[in-house]
Amino acid sequence: MDVNAAVAAAAAISGVLTGVIAMLAFRWSEREQKRPTRTSLHTDPVLPPGVDTVLSVLRSSAVVLDEADAVVKASSAAYALGLVRGGKLAVEPMLQMARDTRRDGEIRQVELDLPRRGTGRGEALAVSARVAPLGSRLVLLLVEDLTEARRIEAVRRDFVANVSHELKTPVGALSLLSEAVMGASDDPEAVERFAGRMQIEATRLTNLVQELIDLSRVQNDDPLEDAEPVRIDELVAEAIDRCRHQAGAKQITMAAGGTADLSIWGNRGQLAAALGNLVENAVNYSPARTRVGIAARRVTAPGGDLIEIAVTDQGIGISDKDKERIFERFYRVDPARSRATGGTGLGLAIVKHVAASHSGEVTVWSSEGQGSTFTLRLPEAGAARDRATDDQTPGLDEDDETGQTDGTTTVSSPYEPFSAPEVLP
Question: What are the contacts of 187-190 at 24+ separation with CB within 8 A?
Fold first, then answer.
């Protein structure tokens, strides 16, 4: 009897101990599961509801950091800018801002210049970084790329400065010449000489103002609103007629060929201005008794046939460093020569904008001492209408080289020769 009681008591005690041990083990397991591990610090934090969706539609690059500075969430733009590498924020100033914000909860913002990665160039990437707390454990970093905005602002400042300088030159000259005329009122020959100079400066001022108006118009207007089929031979004839006097004074022969039965779709006035600027430049920068050729042809392209109009001169040519900038506003290859010819430095900028707005491009081939060839590539009338509905405008590739060796029939590789041009009086 005593033995059975002892066995029962031992069994009861054993069951109680087993239950206590199981309960302790269960409690310990629960506590271990709730305790954050090193891995969970990097992967387990959950974004507040809706934050992930908001970050996915932001234009800014977004990065979310946890308390260990590990990246919880990063947008594709953040990776593209090189902000995140190996699961870490790679920009030390931004990382320090995140730590400071995590410590005191204050929102911080700073503008930084970051080196471009993978370009091999020394250009800086301008960004604006803003850091704010996101809940109790996370920090949100928003980075805005300001590079393009700064570039546009720099272009605007340069444009204003250049316009001011270009306007001051003829205005100042007119003021001085008018004083000279007043002082030489008793000398008819001097008055006539000064009056002639005043006419030259007044013409230069008029041309500058007109080209500024033309440039503003081609930049702001949609040329396809008033688009129509434009015959190439009519554009060429108009451009030649515009420069006939200057060419005759320098005994320059102008020739045209291959323009029959070709047409493009666009604004006639803008296209005439663009081709006229190219021909006028060719005449102005060519020596006396040389040749300027204008040729056109149809070329096949994947998106539809293109019309190429090439203007070739036998002038001074353009150096490689100048070819990269000749389509900039107010840039002149030879400023002294431009002043002598009345050039404003806006003609090629207008050509570039007209070509781009008509879904085309302008390229240049040139060799110093051998002349230059400027080529307008524009969609043919039918193809241009189709492209206009798609609203696609390709960028300009100023490094594509095309050219002709002279003003007659040949064009350098990769193009086949144009048809022989017709010499015009």
Answer: none
